[in-house]
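>> Question from a student workshop board

For tomorrow's exercise we were told to take the sequence and the ligand below, predict the bound structure, and bring the output to class. My setup keeps failing. Could a helper post the expected result so I can at least see what it should look like? The ligand is adenosine-5'-diphosphate.
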Amino acid sequence: MIVLSSVSKWYPNGARPALIDVSAEIGAGEFVFLVGPSGSGKSTLLRLLLREDRATSGQVVVAGRDVARIPDRRVPQLRRIVGCVFQDFRLLPNRTVAANVAFALDVVGRPRHVVRSVVPEVLELVGLGEKADRYPDELSGGEQQRVAIARAFVGRPRVLLADEPTGNLDPATSIEIMSLLDAVHRAGTTVVMATHNASLVDAMRRRVLELGDGALIRDEADGRYDQTA
Ligand code: ADP
Ligand code: ADP
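>> Workshop helper replied:
Here is what the output should look like for this input. Compare the format with yours to find the bug.
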C-alpha cells in the first residue's frame, strides 16, 4: 500500500536532511507505529505521503501512485485514498460536528443525499451521534479527536495517517482514541500512527518503524516503543 524507496528530504536552508535514504514497505491492512524523538522526521514522512510536500530524492508510492508525479489538480484524489488526523484536531471552529464531517465529503464532490445518510452513520460509529449539532469548542479534546477521525474515515480511505493523535489528550482518553484507530484498522484500513506515547505502543505490540535523525533505524514486528536489547 505504501512503498518508500531511498527517500530523502532536504528542506531549503536545512542544515541536514529531514529524511535520509528511508526505504520501507507497508502492506495493505497493516498497522504501523512511527516513533522517534522530536525532529527525527516523522511529520515530514507523513507530509510526503499526503503530498503536502515532495521528496528531494527517492520515490514515495501510495496505492500504486508515485505521489510526486501526481499533478496538483489531482492531489484531491489522493486525499480520498489517504485520510489524516493531527494532534491539534484541525476542526473548523465555526461549523458543527456534522458539518465538519460533511465538509470532507463535500470537497470530494459526494452528492448531498449521500452526505446526509453517511454523516450520521459515521458519527454513531465514533460514539458522537448525540453531538452532531454541537460546535468543536463545546466538546472535550477526546471528542474533538473523534470528530477528526470521523471526518478522516467518512470517505473510507484506504490509508489513515495519524500524526501524534493522542498528544493533547490525557491517558484515559488516549486509550479511547487508540481503540478507535484500532477499529478503523480492523475495518481494513492501513494505519500509520506517529506517536510519542510509549505506553500505547507497548500495549498494542504492532510493527514499529523508528526514525533517528531522519534515518530509519528500526523496523520491528510486534515492537515496543523502546528497542529491546
Ligand atoms: P518530527 O515529526 O519527528 O518531530 P519533523 O519531520 O517535524 O520531525 O522534522 C524533521 C527535521 O526537519 C527537523 O530537523 C526539523 O527542524 C526540520 N523541518 C521540519 N519542517 C521544516 C520546514 N518546513 N522547513 C525547514 N526545516 C523543517
Ligand atoms: P488544505 O488547505 O489543507 O487543503 P482545506 O482548506 O481544504 O485544507 O480544508 C480545511 C480543513 O479541513 C483543514 O484543516 C483540513 O485538514 C481539513 N480537511 C479538508 N479535507 C479533508 C478531508 N478529506 N478529510 C479530513 N480533513 C479534511
